[in-house]
Write a sequence for this structure.
């Protein structure tokens, strides 16, 4: 079981011309990338734009990616550079918000100003979060512990197995069952799947 | 949907699936819309659990990137999977190149060299040649050991090389008489006596280059 084997197999497919494999990589990392970019820009819409640009840059540079480092490390580096460049170019631009950008409040204000354009997005995000949290609370203890250790703490299956004193196969099964339970709840609420949220957002 | 497949997808999402299984599942994931939608929900669940502040879970990034990437050109240079170079390919290619060069060289040389009956004549038309009519008397040495048993007389001034002093030649024949058969020696000496030129001390040899087609004089490997 090689580290980053999942991403690498998708990357190799993209390098052979399978663009659908790149969709899977974007779906997997889009939230993490937006969160990363938001260290540089506080506005979620702008962060999404920068993340999008970073993904496009990564796609175009993918033929040169040899797998020396993990894909996400490479992708994060691209995103950070893109975000820094965006901040620099924005600061040079004379047409901007006429407020002090150095204060945290001003960034928050910018974020609210942009977000006010898409209130459905915030509502849906809150709704998804509440559904997921409720589904996690409803999980049996062993499933909840396994999924939280994985997603919140970022532990590997082996580390979770050691923590929970069970075989790795059991950890894999517990995490899968936890995800299935949460996913079932999400699908019940969003009958059309998350595609509906995409349209609304 | 197959539960085992979903379980594998969950493990793949966590980078906890074996490489070989990842290869197979990655192919299916890139084509199967249902599987991709499930994959997306796994990502949303993970983001919701992390409760990342400000991150919208219905981010449109993936859709917009997919549209842009769809209009991008294919990776032409990487369309085919890379193969390890075959070990025998390089020497074989080298041999093929060498053979080609040799073949071209031979053809070129043949094109340059005239046919023996036509092109040689003008080239050597002005060159007087010494035709050794008695190989036993003066065998011409090969220019180098193991070289071809023939030579071409280098160009000289007309007449200068064509005159051999008869006395010297006779002395040479006598001095080397032990290496020549008696009959040939006798014939040569008698021919000297009967063909004594008017100019004393010199004997003309064949200098009829213009009329007699010159040819490589054979030394007669004896």
């Amino acid at each position: 079981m090689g580290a980053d084997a999942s991403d690498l197999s998708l990357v190799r497919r993209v390098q052979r011309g399978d663009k659908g494999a790149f969709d899977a990589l974007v779906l997997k990392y889009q939230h993490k990338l937006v969160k990363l970019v938001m260290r540089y820009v506080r506005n979620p819409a702008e962060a999404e734009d920068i993340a999008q640009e970073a993904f496009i840059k990564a796609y175009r540079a993918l033929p040169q990616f040899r797998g020396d480092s993990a894909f996400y490390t490479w992708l994060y580096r691209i995103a950070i550079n893109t975000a820094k460049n965006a901040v620099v170019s924005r600061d040079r631009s004379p047409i901007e918000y006429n407020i002090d950008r150095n204060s945290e409040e001003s960034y928050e204000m910018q974020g609210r100003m942009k977000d006010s354009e898409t209130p459905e997005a915030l509502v849906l995000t809150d709704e998804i979060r509440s559904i997921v949290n409720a589904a996690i609370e409803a999980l049996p203890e062993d499933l909840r512990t396994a999924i939280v250790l994985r997603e919140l703490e970022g532990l590997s299956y082996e580390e979770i197995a050691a923590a929970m004193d069970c075989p790795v196969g059991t950890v894999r099964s517990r995490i899968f069952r936890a995800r299935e339970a949460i996913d079932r709840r999400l699908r019940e609420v969003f009958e059309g799947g998350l595609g509906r949220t995409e349209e609304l957002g | 949907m197959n539960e085992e497949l979903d379980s594998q997808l969950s493990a793949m999402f966590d980078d906890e699936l074996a490489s070989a299984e990842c290869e197979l599942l990655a192919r299916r994931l890139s084509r199967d819309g249902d599987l991709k939608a499930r994959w997306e929900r796994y990502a949303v669940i993970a983001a919701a659990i992390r409760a990342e502040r400000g991150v919208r879970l219905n981010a449109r990034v993936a859709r917009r990137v997919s549209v842009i990437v769809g209009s991008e050109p294919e990776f032409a240079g990487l369309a085919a999977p890379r193969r390890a170079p075959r070990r025998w390919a390089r020497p074989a290619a080298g041999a093929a190149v060498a053979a080609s060069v040799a073949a071209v060289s031979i053809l070129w040389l043949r094109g340059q060299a005239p046919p023996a009956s036509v092109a040689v004549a003008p080239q050597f038309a002005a060159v007087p040649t010494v035709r050794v009519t008695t190989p036993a008397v003066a065998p011409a040495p090969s220019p180098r050991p193991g070289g071809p048993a023939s030579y071409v007389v280098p160009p000289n001034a007309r007449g200068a090389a064509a005159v051999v002093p008869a006395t010297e030649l006779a002395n040479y024949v006598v001095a080397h008489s032990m290496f020549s058969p008696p009959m040939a020696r006798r014939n040569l000496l008698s021919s000297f006596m009967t063909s004594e030129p008017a100019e004393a001390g010199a004997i003309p040899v064949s200098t009829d280059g213009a009329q007699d087609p010159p040819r490589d004089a054979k030394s007669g490997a004896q």
